[in-house]
Design goal:
Oligomer: heterodimer
CATH architecture of the largest domain in chain B: Orthogonal Bundle
Strand order of the largest sheet of chain B: 2-1-5-3-4
Distance between the termini of chain B: 75 Å
Shape of chain B: elongated
CATH class of one domain in chain A: Alpha Beta
Largest sheet of chain B: 5 strands, mixed
Largest interface: A-B, 83 and 78 residues
Strand order of the largest sheet of chain A: 5-2-1-9-19
Number of domains of chain B: 2
Number of helices of chain B: 9
Distance between the termini of chain A: 41 Å
Number of strands of chain B: 7
CATH class of the largest domain in chain B: Mainly Alpha
CATH superfamily of the largest domain in chain B: Alpha-helical ferredoxin
CATH topology of one domain in chain A: Flavocytochrome C3, Chain A, domain 1
Helix content of chain B: 25-40%
CATH topology of the largest domain in chain B: Fumarate Reductase Iron-sulfur Protein, Chain B, domain 2
Helix content of chain A: 25-40%
Number of helices of chain A: 17
Strand content of chain A: 15-25%
CATH superfamily of one domain in chain A: Succinate dehydrogenase/fumarate reductase flavoprotein, catalytic domain
Shape of chain A: globular
Chain lengths: ~650, ~260
């Protein structure tokens, strides 16, 4: 397995991308329309890539499962997008953004990719602004910035609490422009079911039209996956309900190795679960921790009391106690684990779900006293409203209740510096690749990476591949296409034919609960081993006892879910295995055995690599390949927030 | 609480639909409306019946996928709240709720509560963008935008494309949706070069899709979960009028000829 990054090694990292761009082959403008490119997914990465490739003159087909490309889950990102513009003149630079991102990722990302990300970040802001993205502005008309976790400079651009929405609508508008120009053909309500590989190259996909149920194949000269992350393996997450691992997993089964699946990010401030019917979790911006104080009662017996009945002396402001210098503003992974510990200790607050109260207070009483209610309202008014809409409680009067939730996945399909997977012709961008975030992603960096990949990286690296391929070489009539289509159809028929007793959701919830318990915020060898024993059992029961009502030849949401859950039931095993294999704690991956005084303990001597798993069959152990990670420019160091 | 639900069931675009009545017990006030429907669907599935199809994705009020009419009101009774963020505490024990899809000729029903809103994408295709290729822009701070204008553009850009405006309008007009996009871009300097052409082309497509004209009822503003205001329609109409009067193709042709 060749896991060489293909990043130029003979030049300084500052010149790597420019050098690489110059060395790559180009495709003559007159020949571009002869090349067909498939882009799966229409979020920030997919829409920006499809639009830009369309502008360049390629013949692009874009697919999304939603009814419109504008609904991809990038739309839900709230906080902002980082860029090393240094508009605030506060000492920011490409180098500093690079440094912060490598360190924030706990030294588990690839330096060359991260440097390039920081480098093109400035172009993203220019591009989005020119498209009409209404970023926040100062009175003088210049762009405004705010600061965000993990950085000491103000480099985050934002559009109220809807930055993801506005950036996505910008990319969507560019995409619609290319659709109108006839350069991109959009297939909405169409889900990818499989990848077609012929002679070792990705040459097309199998899809299902979700409205008619028709299964068909599409051939292309290259396939780009921009299909997001796998957070819904936990059932409950802040992801959209439709977000799924199917496209990435199917590509994995066809030969693309999957890297670091155990790296998941848990966001500390989400609205707690209110009952067993809970369908998703809602994130509240991290910015709340700027003024809110996190606490739980010192004594478990106080937990049932109203918060204002608990005396100051009986409260445990545990983040301020444990991390006096960063206090309530310590990084996401640390704040999340501390909340879990408090609740595991029996000191959680709020309603009990399945016997345990899982919530901690985020209290604004002091901030209201210090700043006045109107100042707090100005800063957080829209978030307070959203909280009240969901919980029915007024956070000006009662402290908010928060609990961590799965939010983002850093792992994904392995890609080289060209964003190409281990299957030639298959490119992976955005959250779907194993990306530039290492073991932990900094706030406001997901939007940056999605757009960097789609607007400014892939449109250079994909042509380099296409230049070596004869256009139009693949066609839907060949045996590989017929076989892949028959496979997909057979799988759908099988799901419909089981006619068991349990609903798809009941399996998804069972898997999700188990993953959250054993492979969530804190993991142990023992728990993961138990998990690895359970997953095949659930998978077996699924294939014997699931019920999928309706018919396959129509809009059938149960069938859509069933296909996705079936893939999660395979994926989960590789994720748990990766978590067990990585005997260290780093970023979002916390192994309880590897800690010192409650802090994550990395093992650079043995685990300074990206773990890339090769599929060997369902129920068979995947094979681990390692891409060693070298830190030549940002020296390895221990994160410390005490 | 216990609820009686009358839900529109329709197998596909060409089938005739009808209301069916369901009774649901044990509904918690903390559930979102869609979670209540999840519970109903789990029950129906377990009984071997087909669950109710409804559209949803982010369930946090931003993707615009969800939406149907509850007792005559798009997205239900809470102002500025999509149905995914509507919670059952807005209802009481014993309530009878009538659920039906968006009703509009331009939004054909696909199944149950799911409608086809692709007309919105086609309106955007006619000009809901600024023609700038990737890589060509100048530095972002070279374009200054007054804060209040930028804020107004953001107010308009907050549209989530859910279609509640169309569902609430007696004419099934999509003027609020179309006006919001035209306003967003018309309020920014970047949007000026294509401003008049944009208004004309998008409105023409709006009419071609079968959406009705605006007669200023204002129902759309009341139904909009994102607080998009009628002033956006006024701005759109102004731009369209200006386009017709001062920027007709004839003027363009003669300028070119001269």
């Amino acid at each position: 397995m060749d896991l060489s990054s293909k990043a130029p090694q003979d030049v300084d990292i500052r010149q790597a991308w420019d050098t690489h761009k110059f060395r790559m082959k180009l495709v003559n403008p007159a020949n571009r329309r002869k090349y067909r490119v498939i882009v799966v997914g229409s979020g920030l990465a997919g829409a920006s890539a499809a639009a830009t490739l369309g502008e360049h003159g390629y013949n692009v087909a874009c697919f999304c499962f939603q009814d419109s490309p504008r609904r991809a889950h990038s739309i839900a990102a709230q906080g902002g997008i980082n860029a090393a513009k240094n508009y605030q003149n506060d000492g920011d630079s490409v180098w500093r953004l690079f440094y912060d991102t490598v360190k924030g990722g706990d030294f588990r990302s690839r330096e060359a990719n991260v440097y390039r990300l920081a480098q093109v970040s400035v172009n993203i802001i220019d591009q989005a602004t020119a498209q009409g993205v209404p970023f926040a502005r100062e009175y003088g008309g210049t762009l405004a910035n705010r600061s965000f976790g993990g950085a000491q400079v103000s480099r985050t651009f934002y559009a109220r609490g809807q930055t993801g929405q506005q950036l996505l609508l910008g990319a969507y508008s560019a995409l619609e422009r290319q659709i109108s120009a006839g350069r991109v053909k959009m297939h909405a309500r169409t889900e990818m079911l499989d990848l077609v590989v012929e002679d070792g190259r990705a040459v097309g996909i199998v899809v299902r039209n979700l409205e008619t149920g028709a299964v068909s194949t599409h051939a292309a000269d290259a396939v780009v996956l921009a299909t997001g992350g796998y957070g819904n393996v936990f059932f409950l997450s802040t992801n959209a309900k439709g977000s799924n691992v199917t496209a990435a997993w199917r590509a994995h089964r066809r030969g693309a190795v999957f890297a670091n699946p155990c790296y998941t990010q848990i966001h500390p401030t989400c609205i707690p679960v209110s009952g067993s019917y809970q369908s998703k979790l809602t994130l509240m911006s991290e910015s709340l921790r700027n003024d809110g104080r996190v606490w739980v009662p010192k004594k478990a017996e106080d937990c049932g009391k109203a918060p204002d009945q608990i005396a100051e002396a009986d409260r445990d402001y545990y983040l301020e106690r444990k991390y006096p210098s960063f206090g309530n503003l310590c990084p996401r992974d640390i704040a999340s684990r501390a909340a879990k510990e408090a609740c595991d200790d029996g000191r959680g607050v709020g309603p009990k779900v399945e016997g345990v109260a899982r919530g901690v207070y985020l209290d604004f009483a002091d901030a209201i006293k210090r700043l006045g209610k109107s100042a707090v309202e100005e800063r957080y008014g829209n978030l307070f409203e959203m909280y009240e809409r969901i919980t029915g409680e007024n956070p000006y009067e009662v402290p908010m209740r928060m609990y961590p939730a799965v939010h983002y996945t850093m792992g994904g399909l392995w890609v080289d510096y060209n964003l190409q997977s281990t299957v030639p012709g298959l490119f992976v961008i955005g959250e779907a690749n194993f990306s530039d975030h290492g073991a932990n992603r900094l706030g406001a960096s997901a939007l940056m990476q999605g757009l960097a990949d789609g607007y400014f990286v892939l449109p250079f690296t994909l042509p380099n591949y296409l230049a070596g391929v004869k256009p139009g070489g693949a066609n839907e009539g060949t045996a590989a296409f017929k076989a892949a289509e028959a496979d997909a159809q057979g799988r759908l028929d099988k799901l419909m034919g089981i006619k068991g007793k349990r609903t798809v959701d009941s399996f998804h919830r069972e898997l999700g609960n188990l993953m959250w318990e054993k492979c969530g915020m804190a993991r142990t060898r023992e728990g993961l081993t138990e998990l690895l024993g359970r997953i095949p059992q659930i998978r077996q029961e699924f294939w014997e006892n699931v019920t999928v009502p309706g018919s396959p030849g129509e809009l059938n949401q149960s069938l859509e879910k069933a296909g996705r859950v079936a893939d999660y039931l395979e994926f989960a095993e590789t994720m748990a295995l990766d978590a067990r294999e990585r005997e260290e704690s780093c970023g979002g991956h916390f192994r309880s055995e590897y800690e010192s005084e409650g802090e994550a303990k990395r093992d650079d001597a043995n685990f300074c690599y990206a773990a890339a798993w090769e599929f060997k069959g369902v129920g068979q152990a995947p094979v681990l390949h390692k891409e060693p990670l070298e830190f030549k420019y940002v020296p390895l160091a221990t994160r410390n927030y005490k | 609480m216990k609820l009686t639900l009358e839900i529109w069931r329709q197998a596909n675009k060409s089938a005739a639909g009808a209301f069916e009545t369901y009774s649901l017990e044990g509904v918690s006030e903390h559930m979102s409306f869609l979670e209540m429907l999840d519970v109903l669907n789990e029950k129906l599935t377990s009984e071997g019946k087909e669950p109710v199809a409804f559209e949803h994705d982010c369930r946090e009020g931003i993707c615009g996928a969800c939406g149907f009419v509850i007792n005559g009101r798009p997205h239900g009774p809470q102002p500025k709240t999509t149905v995914c963020q509507l919670h059952m505490r807005s209802f009481k024990d014993g309530d009878r709720l009538v659920l039906e899809p968006w009703r509009a000729a331009a939004f054909p029903v696909i199944k149950d509560l799911v409608v086809d809103r692709s007309a919105f994408d086609r309106i955007i295709q006619k000009g809901g963008f600024i023609s700038v290729n990737t890589g060509s822009p100048q530095d972002a701070n070279a374009i200054l935008v007054a804060k209040n204008e930028s804020d107004k553009a953001m107010d308009a850009a907050a549209c989530i494309g859910c279609g509640a405006c169309v569902a609430s309008c007696p004419n099934a007009s999509a003027s609020l949706f179309t006006g919001a996009k035209i306003s967003h871009l018309a309020l920014l300097p970047q949007g000026q070069p294509e401003r008049w052409k944009r208004a004309e082309a998008m409105l023409e497509q709006h009419d071609l899709e079968g959406f009705g004209p605006c007669s200023q009822h204002g129902e759309c503003e009341a139904a909009c979960p994102k607080g998009i205001t009628l002033s956006n329609i006024a701005r759109m109409n102004g731009d369209y009028l200006f386009s017709q009067l001062a920027y007709s193709p004839r003027v363009g042709a003669s300028t070119e000829g001269g």
